[in-house]
Specification:
37% of the residues lie in helices and 17% in strands. With 298 residues, it is an alpha/beta fold. It folds into two domains: 207 residues, Alpha-Beta Complex (Spore Coat Polysaccharide Biosynthesis Protein SpsA, Chain A), CATH 3.90.550.60; 63 residues. Strands 1, 2, 3, 4, 5, 6, 7, 8 and 9 form a nine-stranded mixed β-sheet that branches. Strand 2, helix 2 and strand 3 form a beta-alpha-beta unit.
Length: 298
Amino acid sequence: MKNRTVAVVVTYNRKDLLKKCIDSLLKQEGESCDIIIVDNASTDGTADFVRCQYNVPEVLYMNTGANLGGAGGFQYGVKKAVLMGYDYVWLMDDDTLPEKTALNRLLEVNRELNGKWGFLSSVAYWTDGSICRMNIQKKNIYKHIGEEEYNKKYSFVKMCSFVSLLVKADVIREIGLPIGEYFIWTDDYEYTGRISSKYPCYMVPGSKVVHAMKVHTRVNFATDDVSRINRYHYIYRNDVHCYRRYGWRGWMYIILKDIYTVVNILVNAKDGKLDRMKVVCRGFREGLKFNPSVEMPE
């Protein structure tokens, strides 16, 4: 272990993007970090690529042995990071490209707040320089941050994505790991919401990353290819589990979101309308009895 901070990068069959992410992490200025690559059993040669191209002490390669999804990958990597003794765990996908001062700006705010925070979140931009719509932080379960928050040194937030999220190891030991059983989707909102229910948490505009998504858009179940629709039951199942703990406000959010989804399907889906609505209903039903346990790192 060289540094107090470790970046946990989850990857699956995207070694070209992973290379850009690793290179960005190794070029951090002011503060440096070690890097844990969590490979969800890629089949594109990621293992050999990382071991050959990044044979340095800062880069640690770990293979999960199976595709655990993004949620399972982060659970795996965060647990390893805490057990290895790091003080700060910096979570991100393999298509996240931190600017050179991204980590330094996060840790500057850490010092200014005297460590009194649960998580710190960077601002994610898309490749054209605009704010990435997929990664706008939420003030509460209904509302995202507004333009005024980007002009402050840091602002309170309640939920955000795993695209450049810094968490203290002490907080992880207390509140547990991300829920790997989510597999994909909503694991980030569940986890950051769990942290912010106990600690003040902040967005740090000075910490910037590029989220190199292929298409700058939110997931749209109504217009996605019909061959991909079955995987969406995860989001509707996980949403029920995530938001129901917020009481009537959470249930209202779930109901309104699902109603909006059904209307969107009826208006905009070009095919498979009934099948799409069945996926929403299936996810909702599964969510009512979905009770995954929270694993502790130790």
